[in-house]
DNA sequence: TTGTACGCGTTATCAG
DNA sequence: CTGATAACGCGTACAA
């Protein structure tokens, strides 16, 4: 016992503190109670805003709190309340990227940051923390589910990019409060927010047709991805309504490169194309490049409309006319829905669909 | 008391479970011990991999664990070990965005996702979780510090974008293990990873001069931002070494728009410019747009080199030659350093500087 | 090598 | 309205 420290010094010996490995005990609820001259139970009640508190003691406790700089111990609190005070932002992807050790193209996509921003904008106003989880394979998903069942997080904000993903279903089975950003690929009784992809596509079609295009083509994403499905369906329906039964199309995978390839094929097979709707901005950027290289002017010869209004859209040459998805708002709403669900797990499943808007720039 | 539930059912009533609000008790360490026919202490030792364990019991315990699907309770563990098992990724910014409710342009920048990816790539292999914190003002920073002091997270990975930010200093004062991504704006005894910004700039200068440019200009960022400072300094030194004493320059603020404005000024004041080094890719993209609009061909008339190799670089027209910052590797190393620091807070401050590389594309 | 017993800091239940 | 006191689930001296 060569340790020359008092064993229960009131937490004031912090003059020359700051050394890493600091062992000074932190103020506890007991300390607050002692200073405020009340019982620990009362202090707890005041701090947690429970009703039935003498206003006088109320003030006393609070002043004690910031007199000694008390901060509740999250672990102790969680242990007894059985709440983590944390929600998880889960990105469920398939890490099939042999060349890239850092999976999930989502992270490279500005998409991700917008979701994080929207989420934080509501969480920041609450004591709820956000934990990030990337699950690229089933092992990781299994581990996550175990942790969630254990109560490591009170709820999940789910971004599922994997069409075969079983995570949504497993989460509802496990009874974990969950809200998805973007509808699930497979039908499941799960809450989500989404943009009205169909009407977004219709917005684009109407705009292109209104510009006088006679042969509008589509560059869509993979058939299994919900957002891609919906945008394609919306495109075809809107086109059909205007008398264009079988518009040409090519598929990519939401990357710029795939957009370039798709545009090349389109030009090759349908040289008469005079307008293109592309299912996301990244592919649209690729399409723009190919059109320029092919000597087609945008928008004079071939107007192009993208989808998302990601940061890539205004940066494109020419700046991209695109269907805006209010991602921040959507993520914020998802966070609110999740918080409500955590508070009352009995809440019925609900979905909120946001209206897209057309942002007209130079490309169409 | 109309609640018809048993008050302490052993955790086997999970047949038709799955309802939200499930109240079935989760398996605890005691359950494991009971099933494995050992004491709880032994079970604990096995699970935590403590030495001195009979191999036979070892197996017994583990089989019990996954027989009943045991997952350690994080809160209980934290309470006794005084470790959160969590590190915080803190984005410290100034939220001076009156028009945009979702602050921090960083989130819109692909930069953010790369850092997250690199960090997760090392954290995913450990039981350590990542908690996200955005602190846009001093109130938020105060709250964060309180929580950290309390032990809500074991360490901090800090992204500080605010030149006046006091958070780095306060974190070291509080004895919170911290590693920054990018050096602190004000000198502080704090560990960090960074890229050799000076040599990166030199790489760009050498390339441009090697291309035969006679009047190379600089578009830099705000003078207070470390990365901007270092890139500017590196540029000037490299230029000076080659006999160019006072190269023209204009400043932006790392946004595309500011890059456009800066390029316009440059063209205006120094029409003879025949090569540009831009301190980041976003601004370079802006410069590219302005050059095109001004009728200057890139790279024939004016080669342009950017910095970062963000996702904007290959997407630019023409694809941007740029100085690559290995952000994922840097973030991964930062995470490793932080983990080491958490394990041994006595570790001396250390910095790891990564070498940049020139990625030659079409713009120079 | 194993088991017993205590304490981590809170909330919640129950008497007063 | 307030104050004792019993959990919450786990790690770990200490003793066997």
- Domain count of chain A, please report it: 3
The CATH superfamily of the largest domain in chain A is identified as Response regulator
Main sheet: strand order of chain A: 2-1-3-4-5-11
Largest sheet data of chain A: 6 strands, parallel
Q: What is the second-level CATH architecture of the largest domain in chain A? A: 3-Layer(aba) Sandwich
Q: SSE string of chain A, helix = H, strand = E?
A: HHHHEHHEHEHEEHEHEHEHEHEHEE
User: Which segments of chain A are poorly predicted (pLDDT under 50) over 5 or more consecutive residues?
Assistant: 1-22
Examine the coordinates and then state which fold CATH places here, giving the name of the CATH topology of the largest domain in chain A: Rossmann fold
Structural class of chain A: alpha/beta
Mean pLDDT of chain A: 89
Please report the total strand number of chain A as a whole number. 12
Using the alpha-carbon principal axes, give the shape of chain A. Answer: elongated
**Biggest chain contact:** A-B, 69 and 70 residues
Strand content of chain A: 15-25%
- The rounded distance between the terminal residues' Cα atoms of chain A is 78 Å
| DSSP summary: helix tally of chain A | 14
């Amino acid at each position: 016992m060569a340790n020359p420290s008092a064993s229960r010094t009131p937490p004031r010996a912090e003059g020359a503190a700051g050394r890493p490995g600091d062992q000074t005990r932190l103020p506890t609820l007991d300390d607050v109670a002692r200073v405020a001259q009340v019982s620990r139970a009362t202090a707890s009640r005041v701090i947690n805003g429970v009703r039935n508190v003498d206003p006088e003691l109320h003030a006393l406790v609070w002043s004690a709190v910031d007199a000694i700089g008390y901060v509740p111990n999250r672990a102790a609190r969680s242990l007894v309340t059985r709440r983590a005070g944390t929600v998880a932002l889960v990105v469920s992807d398939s890490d099939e990227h042999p060349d890239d050790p850092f999976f999930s193209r989502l992270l490279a996509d500005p998409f991700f940051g917008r979701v994080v921003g929207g989420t934080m904008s509501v969480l920041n106003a609450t004591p709820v923390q956000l934990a990030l989880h990337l699950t690229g394979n089933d092992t990781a998903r299994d581990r996550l589910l175990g942790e969630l069942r254990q109560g490591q997080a009170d709820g999940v904000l789910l971004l599922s990019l994997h069409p075969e993903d079983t995570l949504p279903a497993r989460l509802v089975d496990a009874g974990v409060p969950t809200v998805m950003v973007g509808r699930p690929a497979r039908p499941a009784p799960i809450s989500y927010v989404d943009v009205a992809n169909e009407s977004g596509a219709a917005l684009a079609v109407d705009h292109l047709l209104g510009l006088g295009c006679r042969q509008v083509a589509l560059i869509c994403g993979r058939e299994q991805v919900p957002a891609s499905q919906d945008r394609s369906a919306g495109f075809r329906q809107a086109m059909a309504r205007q008398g264009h039964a079988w518009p040409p199309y090519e598929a990519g995978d939401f990357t710029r490169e795939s957009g370039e390839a798709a545009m090349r094929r389109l030009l090759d097979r349908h040289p008469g194309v005079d307008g293109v709707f592309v299912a996301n901005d990244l592919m649209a950027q690729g399409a723009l490049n190919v059109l320029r290289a092919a000597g087609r002017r945008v928008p004079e010869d071939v107007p192009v409309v993208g989808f998302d209004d990601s940061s890539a859209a205004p940066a494109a040459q020419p700046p991209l006319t695109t269907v805006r998805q209010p991602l921040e708002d959507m993520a914020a709403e998802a966070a609110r829905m999740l918080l409500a669900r955590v508070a009352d797990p009995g809440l019925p499943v609900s979905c909120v669909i946001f209206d897209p808007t057309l942002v007209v720039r130079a490309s169409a």
